[in-house]
Amino acid sequence: MLLSNFRQEEFGYTVVGSRGEMAIVTPEAKNHLRIGKSLDIDKYKPRRLRISLPFHLKAPLVTMVEVTKKCNLRCGHCYLDAGEPRENEMDTEGIYRVLDELKEIKAFHILITGGEPFVRSDIVDIINYAQKCGFFVQIITNGTLLSDTLLSQIEDRGRVSFAITYLGGLQAGFSNDEAFTLLKKKIALIRSHEFPVMCWYCVTKLNLDKKLEIHQWCVDNNVDTNHQDVMPIGRCRGNIALLLDINDIEKNLEEAEEDDERDYRSAFDMCYILEHSARVCKGGRTFAYICSNGDVYPCSNCAAEKLFLAGNLNESPFLDLWEDSFKDIRGITWDDFKGCKTCELHLNPAPGQFCKLRCPPFSKILYGDPLYCGATEYAKAISTRRFYEV
Q1: pTM given for the model
Q2: How far apart (Å, rounded) are the C-alpha atoms in residues 232 and 230?
Q3: SS3 (DSSP) at 190
Q4: Is 5 exposed, middle or buried (0-12, 13-18, 19+ CB in 10 A)?
Q5: What residues contact 228, with CB distance under 8 A and at least 6 apart?
Q6: Which homologous superfamily is 62-276 in?
Q7: How does pLDDT run across 268-309, given as a tens digit for each residue?
C-alpha cells in the first residue's frame, strides 16, 4: 500500500492508502508508518482485533457532510425528506471551519451530500477546500445540475469521486427509460473530466424491473454500483407504493455477472469489519453525519429521525462532541435488540455475513421501540435467501 495518512487507535493504526483504500495494522507498524512511503499490509495485519467497549475510533473513518437540505427534486424515497433548506445553514466559512476541525483529528473520508450539493453556488469551492485538507472526497448527487463548466473548476482529480443516483422509480419525475438515459449521459460527462464515478441504485417496486439491465450496463462499462433496498424512512413513509415485499425477492436476487477484481478494502468495508468485530452499529463509532446547520448525529438515519443528537458545531468543536456526546448510542450493542433473540440471522449467522439492520431509527419506525429490530419482514426474508441459499 502506498501511504496517504494514518492514525493511532487502541488496537494499532488505521491506515489510508493513495487510492483511499483502508487497512488496520498492528502497533509494530509504528516506525515503518512514520518513515515509509509504502507499507506491507500483510506483514502487519492483526490476527485478532482487541476492541474494548464502549467502542469508538479516535475519529470517524467516514463523515457525511450535508452541505444543504435544499434539493431541486422531491424523490419519493428520500430518507432526509429533502427539498427546502434547513434554517441557519452554514455559509462557506462555516463549512471550511468544520473541514478544518475534521482535518485536525485526522478524519480520512468525506461524503459531500444534501439535499443536492450542486444547488449551492459555492459547492466547487467547498470541494476544492476539502481536497486541500487532504480528504478523500465523494460527492453524492442526482446529477441533474452537473455541467462541463462546474466539473472543469474542480482542481484535483486524484481525491475526488462521484456517486450518482439513478432517478427512475423514485417518483422524481423521470420514467425508468428517461432516468437511464440521464444516468449514462452524466456518467459520460463525469468520466470526460477523469473523475471516478459509481451508480447508487435505490431499489423500489417501481424500478425493480430495470435493475438487472442497468446493473449489466454498469458491469459492461466498469461502473461500480451500490444497490440499496428502499426503507420506510423520511419521505418514503408517505410513499408506501415504493416499498418492496416478499413477492419481489426472486426478481431482486437477479444479478449481473461480474468479476470482483477489487484488491482493497474501502472505508465502508472497514466500518463494517469493525462493526462486526465489536458487535455494535457503526454510527457514532466509525461514522458520523453533520447536518447543514451544524447538528451532529451518529449517521444519516439518526439525522433523518432526529435520534441521538450529539450537539451543534456552532456551539462545540467536533472533537468534543465525538469524544463526549455519543454515550447513549455507544452504550447499545447487538445484544440489546430484543427481536434478535428469536431471529435466525442472529442465532445462526452465515459465514462472513451479519445483519446490518440492528438500527435504532428503523426499529423505532417499524416497531415503536428503538431496540427491537430494524428489519422489515421483506428485509429478513431476502437476507435469509442471500445469506443461506444464494
Answers
A1: 0.95
A2: 7
A3: helix
A4: middle
A5: 200, 201, 202, 203
A6: Aldolase class I (3.20.20.70)
A7: 899 998 998 899 999 999 999 999 999 999 999 999 999 999
